[in-house]
Fold each of these.
Amino acid sequence: MTPHVVPDPQAGAAVKAADRAHVFHSWSAQGLIDPLAVAGAEGSYFWDYDGNRYLDFTSGLVYTNIGYQHPKVVAAIQEQAAKLATFAPAFAVDVRSEAARLIAERTPGDLDKIFFTNGGAEAVENAVRMARLHTGRHKVLSAFRSYHGATSTAINLTGDPRRWASDTGSAGVVRFWAPFLYRSPFYAETEQQECERALAHLEDTIAFEGPATIAAIILETVPGTAGIMTPPPGYLAGVRAICDKYGIVFVLDEVMAGFGRTGKWFAAEHFDVVPDLMTFAKGVNSGYVPLGGVAISERIAATFETRPYPGGLTYSGHPLACAAAVATIRVMEDEKVVENAARIGEQVLGPGLRELAERHPSVGEVRGMGVFWALDLVRNKETREPLVPYNASGEANAPMAAFGAAAKKNGLWPFVNMNRTHAVPACNVTDDEVKEGLAALDAALTVADEHTV
């Protein structure tokens, strides 16, 4: 239970003033933002210095999978700091080895070697490097509706508009359309049609790009920021078969979808598919200390058995981050967090969101699984016109801005991206917390409804 917080607006003002003076924020025009000064957080909630408490339906940036300030993870970090706060990555360190073992036990198939990074983008960078070195090829295929990170290769692989300002157009990246029946680029009317046509389109793209030039195909198992579009049955297995046919490395990005988010340890388990490389971060330790990595198949690991891998990071497998990962995984096991995420999605969050869609004309589609859901907001349910234009800003984005403001006014911190709001609470969220969030969404959607036709 969140402790009582005594409001301290003066302290909050000082925090905000220091932030404005010295912190350069990501993805922002610095003079146009007004960051909330956060006083504390616990479980599924955080609060400001004015005493306002918010139910966090963003899980930070979809990473606090066990909520804020879990006492067992905090204790593990403290204990590790007292024992061995840091050590170079070239050495064998007990907590690093244990974190790798616990992760490898949960990854699908033979993804048993773990290369640690500091986050998801670096995981993608290294996965692509491994694929290119393993195959001797350079091109990498990625989907238009995707996000893979903000470092050099990762941002070029990204499909959403955050790529545009940094797109070199010469990074060996080729994009294709992945399946998304609600806004199908293939004029499909059923999931089966969408799957078949998406796979045919992918194979055509490979044929015209030259199969012998393509090192890897990278896909988010369930795309996250781009809209939580669960792939249709058979699609990922079809991609796996195409990769095998042409000797292409199959990379699944589970940075956001992994570690319980979809109601399985990894989303790949839902689709019975094993990639050659899998990237992870975020939920591996609930974001308490930065950590990411690549889970590597036996075949690709063998490439570097006697050949040095030309890559590394100073903080690879940092002891504090690994201690947080070990503690987080054990908490998730002991407290059945993955099972809770699955149950919440099936029995509480999913049904609750679908009920909202029935009553609100602004909700065009509900999609997701576990605690990984999106509401696609529209101006018209029949035409499926998005509530705001693609990549809208300023006045064009006013309807979504008004929706977000209404959610916050009702004590819910929403995840808003383009014409969507995502419902992505902690994996250990309670039934009552979800119902509280649904009530706040219900009220906020009445504001979105005002912009429908």
Note: The chain has a mean pLDDT of 96.
Amino acid sequence: MEMNTLDAVSGIRIDGSRLWNSLMELARIGATDKGGVCRLALSDLDRQGRDLVCAWARELGCSVRVDAIGNIFMRRPGLHDDLPAVMTGSHIDTQPTGGKFDGNYGVLAGLEVLRTLHQRGIATEAPLEVVVWTNEEGSRFVPVMMGSGVYAGAFTLEHALAAQDRDGVSVDESLRAIGYAGPEPARPGAVGAYFEAHIEQGPILEDRGITIGAVQGALGQRWYDVAITGQEAHAGPTPMELRRDALLTASRLVLEVNRIALEHAPHGRGTVGCIDSFPNSRNVIPGRVALTVDLRAADDATLDSMAAAFARACRELAEPGRFLVESKEVVYFPPQPFEPRLVQAIRDGASTLGLDSLDVISGAGHDAVYMARVAPTAMIFVPCKDGISHNEIEDAQPEHLEAGCNVLLHAMLRCCGRIQFAEGGVP
């Protein structure tokens, strides 16, 4: 049978309606009254979602294997099946008030690529795999991005299996309960390329009117827990100039975090997400405040500069005998660049489809961040309405999801070697 070049498949497109219908069918598992999805990791609803996706893959003749942390690998064999796989995927667990597309789109876009190749009678030289990663969200079990983290060696299988939810139920117990404690070792196989399609979860693409984001990498992150101690006192008798108001000092630190991020544009980010004031009484001057700080940047030099500026702000706000400012770093994710060759494959795929693309940086963590440690990796972003995600009103346009999936198809075809049409296959 004749071997075909990429030119011969440049006109191939996925079935956008089929992709959309699959997303809507999966979204019915754990559907919420407000139109979102609550399908927590390793719950029975997660089992139902996993069973559905695996059944769809088996209908295409794919093999399905599950590793010891519950990651699912759905494999379409290649003409030379010993070659490193071209992989794509994401997750199907959600936040308690999650949406229909976060994670789910990446898995079902991968499945739609396989459906399209199957329907067209197209064989690829390298095998293709779609993966469902376990517990990406971290809403039930910590750490986040658990399945890909174990796979990439970021932490051990034993550490992940021992993690417990608020009810004291472990990951190990939950995997066994839903039937997804797999026999396969949770370690990397031969992966030639990994792509992850995802809604942007931010407003940039929508604001620019561009459908495809070619993601160059992910921001590094440093998280801090901060405690500020002043002194509680009565709100009435205590003059303003004699107060040791811990909340006032905390407010000044919030402004400093914002200033630091703005001074490290364009990718600097600074967020104070949680504030607890003690004693939290209407007529008592706050004596203690606990808050969280999240700093992000695209490279370690910038992130280090932001961290140094933050430490300096903490020192300057402390006043011996009046205010104590204590800061502890609790999380560090290094910035993660993606593989330039794969990012270019995404740009080229968009060009083949007549779509504009924009080079972007991911501000959020994704399974691709861990996969980039063990395999060439890149991500495809598509817009989501108002940049909203981790919310039941999360939304995306069908035509944008279709376009992103088509880019995924053509990017993967650029990485999987020779292409062959079966007898009767349709270019």
Note: Residues 44 and 178 are 6 Å apart (CA to CA).
Amino acid sequence: MPYVTPSHPAPSPGRPRRGGRWSRTVSALAAAVTLATGAALLSPATEARAAVAPKAAAALERVSNFGANPGALTMYVHRPAALPAKAPVVVALHGCTQSAQLYADNSGLNTFADRHGFLVVYAETTTANNANKCFNWFQPGDTRRGQGEAASIRQMVAHATTAYGTDPAKAHVTGLSAGGAMTSVMLAAYPEVFAAGAIVAGIPYGCGVDVVSAFSCMSPGADRTPAAWAQAVRDAHPGFAGPWPRVAIWHGDNDATVAPRNADELRDQWTAVHGLGQTPSRTSTIGPNNTRRSEYGPTPGQAAVEVDKVPGIGHGTPVAPGSGPEQCGATGTQHFIASICSSYWITEFFGLDGTTTEPPVDPPTDPPTDPPTEPAACWTASNYEHVRAGRATTTGGYAYAKGSGQNLGLYNTFVTHTLKESPAGHYTIATGSCP
């Protein structure tokens, strides 16, 4: 039976279909996958949250040309009125079904950008990349250094340096759900670019390689040794010797979509990368709801890894509407949960609130330029192998070439095509000559 994934819209009425029971079965599978990787990759509507409508917010500034964009993403920025020279930058990655503007309006990040003077870059994916607007954290073609969505996000950081004068040594990244899993990708694939990251309800790097394994990663979660998790990170950028990014991990105790054990596996992954054990150096509670904080590392207030487990909430971004110094965000939109202002504490963890000093970080070794143009390459394989390798995606039992969206036919091991990649991350059915 073919698997399905929400990486492209369902076939149009003109595409071949089968009727009867088979059609109903495929439709049911497609609906289940859409639920699991789209709406249900975020918290259910029934979880408690205050009925607070988001404040009217200034529209984000769209950046129409930020350089090479193999992942076909859109870049937006929130720029404070008085952005200082060599300001820090925070990259923010939304969850499934969300947009950059929705994430900006509700997460509270812009509040602290205005207060402390840093640029926020909002990356946005589209339904052309994924039918449910999820970042493709489980597609190898989007999670490797120099490829797909990961390369596009890295280019946004480079553009922020050249266009807005941000400090390349003070780049940070955070995101929710699929955006949290993509935060893991960015920290592993580009550890020299980011000083720190905050993963909210996310997945360890290297867990999912296709939609089937992605489901298992979400729930019940994968159980691997700290050494195995750490090796996945090191393999993402072989030869990199550090310093590694600092990592904060946020997760709700009642998350029924991305199992809370993922917070523990993320802890195992990043403590092992930093050469630390899995026993916390310090524990405490923070915020009005007694969120449980565990810190790993010898320096108080400058933990290499931090885990924040939020009691009583499901899958979403913890926010605390209000005008107090530790409050932020809005809950009028689903998946932003009244609890604790995670953005306040994440800003503090990044060292952007003016009360802490980040440890010295080596400047990026990669220059802020477009990823190099690779010569065209070709692969001949079954549709099943093209999908596993990240050259194609699936939905409704069909395979589609990544980038071009060409229909490759049924997703199975019997249909074979030669795909040509040019530019990087854009695949088409090869016709005529092929290297």
Note: The longest strand covers residues 246-252.
Amino acid sequence: MTQAAEHDRRAFFDTWGPYALLAVGVLTAAGSARLVGMDRADLYVSGVLVVFGLLLQLAWGRVDRGRPGPSRTGAAFYFARWANGFVLTWLNPFFAFYAVTGYYNGARRLPPRLVMPGLCLTALTMAGSEVGGMPPRGLVLWLGLVVVFGVNVGLVALFTRFNQQEEARVREQADTIAELERTNTALQQALDENAALHAQLLVQAREAGVADERRRLAAEIHDTIAQGLTGIIAQLQVVSNAKDLPTARTHLERASALARHSLGEARRSVHNLTPVALAADGLPEALKKTVTEWGERTGVRVEFTVTGTAEQLHEEVAATLLRIAQEALSNAARHARAQRLGATLSFMGDEVVLDIRDDGTGFDPAGLPPRTRTGGFGLDGMRARAERIAGTLTVESEPGHGTAVSARVPLVRDDR
């Protein structure tokens, strides 16, 4: 039962319970009046006290609506009702049905220091009813009154203790719920801030990626196409000064080969501008095709594995991991002279990890030149790509024992 339902049930009994119990007391007392020896005067007094009880309850209900809870006014009403119930029970033990109301609302209407005295007075009324009415007739009934009163007081103390423990538990539960609500609110705010930071991070990554691609293209054009064109010009200059046809033909063939090579480099640079492999496939499929094609092209035995539950990643995260894989494969082809290469894509909760390892010649990572802003586009470029989306890149290698590259980035799902 919820706290609201419990409160409604108590409010209903507080309003109508005393009237119902008074009615039960009147009916049972009327039916037993002759049996308990009530005379005409007792009946008149009982009638007056019943009317007084009704008026008292009406007044209490009106005051209680304005000031619920323990108060001096509530204590005055409580003891007035107790006195009324005590006298009625003295006249007829069956009026104890009305007096028992004091057990129910004493703890909620009396100040703490008056709770036990008020409940003990109610216990006295109930004990008098249980031994056959007040005053007891004979020594045995007086002893019985003492025993029954002691038992009632003990039960009152016991149940009061249980009630206090239950109220303490309810308060603790309410405090815990309130604390959980505050924690959930703070957590939701943190999640909202984290989502905003992710969005900001992706925007920055997109902008940095554009600048990085421009620098990469500039470096590739300088290192490949521009050098190729320079070589072509040099070969054509030789042709223009050649005095015999065989020499001219040789240099023309060299110029043609340089032109074809430069054209291939230009196509490769344009192809790498955007990850075409991700246009139709997700990252796992794109990586598998990339690794497989690389193995067929280089003659290296390759193996690609996906662990965890694959998810559709944000395009920036997928593109970053694909670029890192392409650069790692390119480095392995140029330097590793490997016989086997393995790639693993792992979905690990809130992270994605890409591992590429080979059994090639390896190298000493500590012997690499320091990273600079205008440096190369190999390991430093891969590390920069990972860091731009709050990731990390680690390289483990040793001369003669291969190389392992591991990129660890946040798992940001596709928001489309």
Note: The chain is about 70% helix and 10% strand.
